[in-house]
Amino acid sequence: DATAHRSDALASVVEPTRVGLSPGEADRLGVRTEARVAITTPHGEAVLPLEVDGRLHEGAVYLFAGDPAQRALRLLPLDGGPVRATVTTAAREEVSA
After folding, report:
1. Choosing a second label site near 77 at 20 to 30 A (CA), which of 34, 45, 83, 97?
2. How far is CA 9 from the centre of its chain?
3. How many C-beta atoms lie closer than 10 Å to residue 38's C-beta?
């Protein structure tokens, strides 16, 4: 839960919220690690960091839910099962000083 995620004692095992793609899928979409991607499912959309990992299967998008405060689980059905997702490069946010 969110309290455990903020615990200093568990900091070494906390998983960050991110989207995972295989290298082939990342190349096909034209994205790379450290990019932020927009992920859209029938249940919602979010902009999350991308991780490219050779251990992940081609043709699949992996959601590492991580921090409950990020509310990434809202992108999945209630049973947590598979869902069709679309991944695109997120538009850069402009920051003014």
Report:
1. 34
2. 24
3. 15
Partners of residue 44 on adjacent β-strands: 41
Residue 56 DSSP one-character state: S
pLDDT in tens, the chain (97 residues): 566 656 777 767 778 889 999 999 999 988 887 789 999 999 999 999 999 999 999 999 999 888 777 788 889 898 888 899 999 888 765 444 5
Q: In sequence order, what are the beta bridge partners of 63? A: 19
**Is 36 in contact with 88 (CB distance < 8 Å)?**
no
Distance from the first to the final alpha carbon of the chain: 35
Q: Are 20 and 58 in contact (CB under 8 A)?
A: no
Three-class SS of residue 40?
Answer: strand
The token duo for 7 is 């615990």
DSSP secondary structure letter of residue 22? -
